[in-house]
UniProtKB/TrEMBL annotation, chain A:
SUPFAM superfamilies the UniProt entry points to: Periplasmic binding protein-like I
Segments forming domain Leucine-binding protein: 30-378
Top-rank taxon, per record: Bacteria
One GO process term, biological-process aspect: amino acid transport
Alphabetical keyword list: Amino-acid transport, Signal, Transport
Protein name in the entry: Amino acid/amide ABC transporter substrate-binding protein, HAAT family
InterPro entries noted in UniProt: BCAA_transport, Leu-bd, Peripla_BP_I
Species for this entry: Tranquillimonas rosea
Keyword Signal found: yes
Lineage of producing organism: Bacteria, Pseudomonadati, Pseudomonadota, Alphaproteobacteria, Rhodobacterales
TrEMBL record, chain B:
Keywords: Cell membrane, Membrane, Transmembrane, Transmembrane helix
Primary residence: membrane
PANTHER family xrefs: ABC TRANSPORTER ATP-BINDING PROTEIN, HIGH-AFFINITY BRANCHED-CHAIN AMINO ACID TRANSPORT SYSTEM PERMEASE
Protein name: Amino acid/amide ABC transporter membrane protein 2, HAAT family
Species, as recorded: Tranquillimonas rosea
Membrane topology: Multi-pass membrane protein
GO molecular function: branched-chain amino acid transmembrane transporter activity
Pfam family name, one: BPD_transp_2
Gene Ontology CC, one term: plasma membrane
TrEMBL record, chain C:
Record's keyword annotation contains Plastid: no
One family name in Pfam for this protein: ABC_tran
GO cellular component: plasma membrane
Record protein name field: Amino acid/amide ABC transporter ATP-binding protein 1, HAAT family
SUPFAM superfamilies: P-loop containing nucleoside triphosphate hydrolases
Organism this protein belongs to: Tranquillimonas rosea
Single Gene Ontology MF annotation: ATP hydrolysis activity
Length: 422, 335, 255
């Protein structure tokens, strides 16, 4: 806080002395940050937590940058890209947001990044969305993503199971939409490269209840197949694991990021017995004693108390990280938004800082490079399940360590891409 | 009559001057959306007001046109086939009309709530198709970056040209509907709305008329669908999911499904509420609010806001000469 | 219409016509011969099957068994629309008019239906040449001064007149009137009778009527149905003299 005060004083003095850039310096215009998240529909809870991250970051800077008061406004989506676009237009074109933070889900992100091109006078930072395409396919100059995406989260695990577990043939069970495709994509990119093969992929609709037809085709124990990569979230994961356990399935399991989130780890049914030992990967780990994360959790709990979740979600962390990046860059340029945010965007492109999940920087597509954990589900002393870090891989970049050229050759994720059949 | 002419002039003036008094948000997101979305609603109002049939598949038909336009003008990830835009648009409207005809075929033997249910089933089937089909619909992702054409240096995607394009098409659709209902075909449709049995006994092929009405509604919805596509610059399964499908009915009922003007009134009010309700009410309660407004309209003015205005007008002007309000169209709904 | 070849045919021949609704036989093996230009009444108690017979002749209901031919042509399998083009017109027991349209438009829909093309969408009705036909038609049924009124605002009697007007559009050959006088005042009945008397002589007319007086005054020949079967046929005088029929008609033997 002291530093902020100093900066404020210094700016004012400087401006007064120079007497230039009259308008912005004298009036110290309010800078408006628009937060866009899913406040309706199935992702309402994560959406709310995301906006808590925005609020927390603004609060951390005392609600002003270089004398410019920071105002936060919000708009809602329901996960539908059309609705997200409508809300973004409202924030930018009607309410005059200078900086946009959001959205939450993958396909919304692709849409908003496209919209960013229409609005060069606004700076867009991602919220929680993690689709690959957003910053890969024809990326917008003024769209920045300081969080890692779905493929980055899973890439280290692919290599890991080949090299550390000696697997070379697996089956994949996944929900049938873009986020799981991205997760499979990241996993297989390094897995196939390391020599692994995929015998089969099984896709099921989101919200499926009955997995018996899939399970009937799955091996129950190791043999030709070494293990299974499961990319299901929430109740889908619980239902699948329960039914697989009831059928006596014993194949070793590695999972997508959502397979081991809190909703699954706190389940009590038959799925519970399969959970310990499952490997997954992602930007956070419960038991990593990362100072930045603990600090963030503390700050979150102090500020929100009972109003927030017991512990911040990944979405709160991602929204927070992106907002904080915006504020740091604003601070660096002393709130200068002239000339279509030229200085701010430049500062953002070169920004490096420590996010709750560790150091983060951007590549030429303005996509984050950051650390990823490989986690194992372990039983704690109190009987609860938690993610124990096996390894922390620093600086996982957008190209998953394959280099730009090799990566671009893989194409875009889909049901069938990539494939490395046995 | 003179009042109607006055109203026409006022509406034309408002449409013309509107861009010069509002910012780009009001121009595109409120204005453009009202006109494009309103045209989709118009296709529903046309069906209900003049044929007595309800449909929940109008957003779906609009989606067919939208997807077709995207497929033929903005191929993505190996999905699509780039064609010259006039060809693409003709194809898109043709496909929307065809989709309308097919939905009509499916719905032709049903009435009222059953038509609603069967068209809803079609709408949901289409939604899942777009979600799960990759070869044509590009699955969950759909098509992004679908820009309207640039004609002779005029970028139809820029806010002002897009607004006027929407306005011209909306006016044409509205005028088209008003025209068609005064042709022999249109009279026959109103006949089948009132007494299908009588119409059959007069020598008309009632099922054929019903199917054709759906086809025409499909054409109109297709135009709205293309505008909607360009407004969003993209289309994905979310564009044809349950929410937008229901929104069309909501906007229709809000504005009044007894008169084509109700389509645009409803679309306007719906768009405003959709964009600004969050300022007055917590987002979680938004749908409750919409539901309550809907309920209030259905209870207190079954012919929607236009009906309310018409009745108020009739009361105000009607003292003296007996200008009984137009027959209560709402009683024909679902016949 | 009055050409000799047609004259030799019967206008309508119905043979062994049967219609079942589940176990109920609404019309049971009815055979009729109606000469061109004949005025025929069909009498019978409630539920005798009169309307069902009309429905089959007009094509609204397919028969379970039997044949119908019109001026020598078998129309049993013809769609209702095609029968209209063959000259079959009908009215309904309960008035079916297009309430949302004006009287003129109601009549115009009827004219287009009988002449086609029915699906024209380019020219507005106001500019269609055959629209002039609505005036004389309205005049024939006494609605000339009500042309612009919405049909829903007509009185019951006027709606019956409008129905008749619609049925008369474009030279019908066989007119089926289902209880045209039902619910009319005495005065309205009289003008209806006058209208019927004014119909062209070559028009074949079949009339269902509960009011024996009207029926017997307006027709040349009477068919009596009972429980779906043909009970008796004869001239009005014969029927009036038949005590059995009188009893049934007064409901003494009714089901
Ligand atoms: N669509 C139908 N489905 C089932 N039963 C029917 C149907 N139409 C008529 N009926 C039955 O067939 C019988 C004959 O009916 P119809 O209407 O032909 O009698 P009607 O002679 O016209 O009588 P009314 O004088 O009451 O008009 C009645 O018992 C009637 O209930
Ligand atoms: Mg009857």
């Amino acid at each position: 806080m002291l530093r902020n005060g100093l900066t404020l004083g210094a700016t004012a003095t400087l401006a007064a002395l120079m007497g230039t850039t009259a308008l912005s310096a004298q009036e110290e215009e309010t800078i408006t940050i628009g937060g866009l998240a899913t406040l309706e529909g199935p992702f309402a809870a994560p959406g709310e937590d995301g906006l808590r991250g925005v609020e927390l970051a603004i609060e951390e800077f005392g609600g002003e940058i270089a004398g410019h008061p920071i105002e936060m406004i919000t708009a809602s989506s329901d996960g539908n890209p059309d609705v997200a676009l409508e809300s973004a237009r409202r924030l930018v074109e009607q309410d005059g947001a200078d900086i946009m933070i959001g959205p939450l889900s993958g396909s919304e992100g692709i849409r908003i990044a496209q919209y960013a091109k229409e609005q060069p006078g606004t700076t867009f930072l991602n919220g929680g969305s993690a689709a690959i395409e957003t910053t890969l396919v024809d990326p917008a100059e003024n769209f920045f993503r300081f969080n890692t995406e779905g493929a980055q989260w899973t890439a280290p695990l692919g290599e890991y199971v080949v090299n550390e577990r000696g697997w070379d043939n697996i089956v994949i069970v996944s929900e049938d939409y873009s986020f799981p495709y991205a997760q499979i994509f990241g996993f297989m990119a390094t897995y196939c490269e390391a020599g692994g093969t995929v015998q089969d992929k099984y896709f099921t609709p989101v919200g499926n209840n009955d997995y018996s037809s899939v399970i009937a085709q799955l091996p129950l124990e190791t043999g030709e197949v070494d293990g299974m990569y499961v990319v299901l979230g929430g109740s889908d994961a619980v239902n699948f694991l329960s039914q697989y356990a009831q059928m006596g399935g014993q194949l070793p399991i590695v999972g997508g990021t959502n397979v081991t989130d809190q909703t699954v780890l706190t389940t009590q049914g038959p799925a519970r017995e399969l959970l310990p030992g499952i490997l997954s990967s992602g930007p956070v780990s419960d038991n990593a004693d990362l100072e930045a994360w603990q600090e963030f959790v503390q700050r979150y709990q102090d500020y929100f108390g009972d109003e927030g979740l017991p512990s911040p979600s990944l979405f709160a962390s991602n929204y927070y990280t992106n907002t904080k990046a915006a504020l740091l860059a604003l601070q660096e340029v002393e709130g200068d938004l002239s000339n279509d945010h030229e200085a701010l965007n430049e500062a953002l492109s070169n920004l490096e800082f420590t996010s709750p999940t560790g150091p983060v920087s951007l590549n030429e597509n303005r996509q984050a490079t950051a650390a990823i954990y490989i986690n194992e589900v372990v039983e704690q002393a109190d009987g609860s399940l938690a993610l124990e870090p096996l390894e922390r891989i620093e600086e996982v970049d957008q190209y998953l360590g394959l280099g730009r050229e090799a990566y671009m050759e893989l194409g875009l994720p889909s049901r069938d891409n990539p494939s490395c059949p046995s | 009559m003179t009042l109607r002419r006055l109203l026409t002039v006022v509406v034309a003036l408002v449409l013309l001057v509107y861009p010069f008094v509002v910012n780009s948000f009001w121009l595109v997101q409120i204005g453009g959306r009202t006109l494009g979305f309103g045209t989709i609603v118009l296709s529903l109002v046309f069906l209900t007001a003049y044929t007595g049939m309800l449909s929940l598949a109008q957003m779906t038909v609009a989606g067919v046109a939208g997807y077709a336009t995207a497929y033929f003008t903005a191929p993505t990830g190996g999905v699509g086939l780039e064609l010259a835009w006039p060809v693409a648009l003709i194809l898109a409207l043709g496909l929307a009309t065809l989709a309308g005809l097919l939905i009509g075929l499916v719905a032709v033997r049903t009435r009222g709530i059953y038509t609603l249910m069967i068209t809803l089933a079609v709408a949901m089937a289409f939604y899942y198709l777009t979600l799960q089909n990759y070869a044509v619909f590009n699955g969950f992702t759909g098509f992004n970056n679908v820009e309207p054409p640039v004609i002779a240096g005029l970028d139809l995607g820029a806010p002002l040209p897009f607004y006027y394009l929407s306005a011209v098409l909306a006016v044409l659709c509205y005028a088209g509907v008003r025209h068609v209902v005064r042709t022999p075909f249109g009279l026959a449709l109103q006949g089948l709305r009132d007494e299908p049995q009588r119409l059959q006994a007069l020598g008309y092929n009632v099922p054929l008329l019903r199917v054709l009405a759906f086809g025409l509604a499909g054409f109109v919805a297709g135009i709205g669908g293309i505008l909607n596509l360009w407004l969003n610059a993209s289309i994905s399964p979310g564009s044809v999911a349950l929410n937008p499908v229901i929104d069309v009915l909501m906007a229709g009922v809000l504005g009044g499904i007894g008169h084509p003007a109700g389509a645009y009134v409803g679309a306007f009010v719906f768009t405003i509420v959709d964009n600004f309700a969050i300022d007055f009410i917590a987002r979680e309660r938004f749908n409750t609010l919409i539901g309550l407004v809907f309920l209030a309209i259905v209870l207190f003015s079954p012919d929607g806001l236009t009906g309310l205005v018409r009745r108020a007008w009739a009361r105000w002007a009607g003292t003296g000469r007996r200008r009984d309000d137009a027959p209560d169209d709402s009683t024909n709904i679902g016949k | 219409m009055a050409d000799a070849a047609v004259k030799q045919e019967e206008a309508l021949v119905v043979e062994g016509l049967t219609r079942r609704f589940g176990a109920l036989v609404a019309v049971d093996g009815v055979s009729l011969r109606v000469a061109p230009g004949e005025r025929r009444a069909v009498l019978g108690a409630n539920g005798a099957g009169k309307t069902t017979l009309f429905n089959m002749i007009a094509g609204d209901l397919p028969p379970s068994e039997g044949h119908i031919s019109l001026f020598g042509r078998d129309i049993t399998r013809l769609s209702p629309q095609k029968r209209v083009l063959e000259g079959v017109r009908r009215t309904y027991q309960k008035s079916l008019v297009f309430g949302g349209l004006s009287v003129r438009d109601n009549l115009y829909v009827a004219i287009r239906g009988a002449t086609g093309p029915r699906l024209a969408i380019w020219r507005r009705v106001e500019t269609q040449p055959d629209r002039d036909g609505t005036g004389p038609l309205a005049e024939r049924v006494g609605l000339a001064d009500r042309l612009d009124a919405p049909a829903s605002e007509l009185s019951h009697g006027e709606q019956r007149q409008l129905e008749l007007g619609m049925a008369l559009a474009h030279t019908p050959r066989l007119l089926l009137l289902d209880e045209p006088a039902a619910g009319l005042s005495t005065r309205e009945r009289e003008s209806l009778m006058a209208m019927l008397a004014d119909l062209p002589r070559d028009l074949t007319l079949i009339l269902i009527e509960h009011d024996l007086d009207i029926a017997l005054k307006a027709v040349d020949f009477v068919t009596v149905m009972h429980n779906g079967r043909l009970l008796a046929e004869g001239t009005p005088d014969e029927i009036a003299a038949n005590q059995d029929i009188q009893d049934i008609y007064m409901g003494k033997h009714g089901q």
